[in-house]
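As the next step, I wrote out a protein sequence along with its fold in C-alpha cell form, included below for the reader:
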Amino acid sequence: MTMVHDLARAARAALPALAAASTAQKSLAISTAAAAIRAHSGELLAANAADVAAGEAAGLSAALIDRLALDGGRVEGIAAGLETVAGLPDPVGTVIARWSRPNGLEFSRVRVPLGVIGIIYESRPGVTADAAALCLMAGNACLLRGGSEAARSNALLLDCMAQGLSAAGLPAAAVQMVPAGNRALVGDMLAAQGLIDVIIPRGGKGLVARVQAEAKVPVLAHLDGINHVYVDASADADMALAVVINSKLRRTAVCGAMETLLIDAAAPDGLKRRLVAALLDGGCAVRGCAAIQALDARVAPASPEDWDTEYLDAIASVAQVAGVDGAIAHIAAHGSQHTESVVARDQAVATRFLARVDAAIVLHNASTQFADGGEFGFGAEIGIATGRLHARGPVALDELTIFKTIVRGTGQVRP
C-alpha cells in the first residue's frame, strides 16, 4: 500500500502546477513527447519486439499479441495521436452553462480536472501515451499501471512523456507508472480512496471484472463489447456487405468488433447468403440459428452461450430476427451497451433503432469499428465507458473533466 500511496501523494502534489499550466504549456509537453517517440522509434520497436517474443513464449493469445505488437505505422499513429491531442481545445475553464436568477445571482458551470486518475490496462502500449496525454491536457495527474507483457515498451513511452513534461517545465510526478508484475499493487490502487479520484480499466474481461468488483474508487469502464450489426430488409446489399465484413474482420481483437450479426427475416435470401458466405470466405467461423444454418452448410449451430460471448477472434454468431423490433429485443437480451449498428435505407427503421437501442454508441450505415476516440475526432481515448454516470462512450478530454458551479452575487442573502 505504501508504494501506491507515495505515488498518489506525489501525483496530488503535482495538481496545483497542472491547474496553473497554460494551454500552450500543456500542448508543448505533449508535442515534445510525440517528437521523442518518433526520435526513439527504433528503440521502441526493438523493445516491443522483445515484449512480443516474451509474450509468445508465455502463450499469450493471438488477440493479446495483436494488441501488444507495434510496427512503424502504429508507432507513427501513437505520435500523430499525441499531436492531435496537443492541438485540441483545452477543456479546462470552459463554461458549459450560464444562467441567472430573479434575485440577481449569476451562475456558471465550468469544466475542471477530475484530479488523480488511475489507469489499469493490459497489452496495448499505445495506452501509455494516449492516457498520459489526455490526462495532462485535461489538467489531471495520472498513475499508469500497464501489464507486465508490455513492460519494455511502456517504459520507453513513459520516458518520452517525461521528456515532454521536462521541456514544458511541468512536474514529472504528473505522469507516473505503477510497477507491473505485482497484482497486490492493483488492489492498492483500487482501495486508494482520497488519493486516486477515478479508476479507468482497459483490458480483458477478467481485469475489468476485478476492478468493478473490488474498487472503492469510482470506475469508468466497460466489461464486454458484445456488439451487433442489424441488416434490415431495406438495406443496400453492397453497403451491408461492406459494413458487416469491416465490423467483424478489420480487427477482430478490438472492443468495437462485431460479435453478432442480426439479419431481418424479410431480407432477400440472396442477401442473407452473401453476408454469411462473405464471413466464411473471409476466414471467419460462423455459428448460426437454424435459419442461418440452412443458408450454408459451413455454418455451425449456435449454442445459447454464443449470443452472450465476446469472441475477440474470427468467430461470429448470426441470427435471423423479425425485423427491427426483433433486433432491438435481441440486443436488449444479449448486448453489453457498448456499440450497435443498423444498416437500412428505410429512415423510419433507422430512427427506431437509434432511439430504442440502449448502448453507449449507436450507428446507422457504418461499421462498429468506428467505436474509437480518434475516429470521433477526440485525438485519442483512454477507453469506452458503458455506465450511466458522468461519461458514456469514448473517454477523452471532456470526459476527463468534471464541472464546478460558480455563483456571483452582489451581497444577496437567503431569506
The radius of gyration is 23 Å. Residues 2-20 form the longest helix (19 residues). The chain is about 40% helix and 20% strand.
